[in-house]
Amino acid sequence: MGFDQFLSSPEMEILIITHRDIFQSAANSDSRFSDDYANLTAIIRLDKQDMKKAGLKEGNLVAIENNAGKVVVKALQSTYEEPHPGTAYMVNGPWANALVSAETSGTGVPAFKYIEAKMKKSKESSITSFE
Questions:
Q1: pTM of the model
Q2: Which CATH architecture has domain 11-121?
Q3: Which residue has the higher pLDDT, 10 or 25?
Q4: Domain of life, per the record (predicted)?
C-alpha cells in the first residue's frame, strides 16, 4: 500500500471549446454508441503544461464537472501548436453536451462553444456511458 492513494489529484478550472471532427462524423454514421465513435468523441485535448500541472499522462481518464453535469473522458495532449493554458478542446457529442448549461441568457441557444468546468484525474476505470 503506497502513500499515493491518499493524495488527491489537483483540480483545475478549464474552459472547453467544442468543435466538429470529420473522423468522428464518419464513425457516427455507423453508430453513436460504437467503440469507434467513443474513441473519437469521449476525449478532451489539453495543453501540454496543463497535463503536466494536473499530473496526467496521455490516455488517463479525467472527471470533468460543472453545474450542468459530470463526465469521465480520456485526456490527450492537444495537437494545437500554440500554448493554450486553461483552454481545452472537445469534439461535439454526448460527452461535451452533458456539460452544456440549459441557460441561454434569453437567446434560446445554449453556450455550446464556451463551457466552464473543473477537471481532475478520475478514479473511475471507464469513460461515462450513454447507452
A1: 0.85
A2: Beta Barrel (2.40)
A3: 10
A4: Archaea
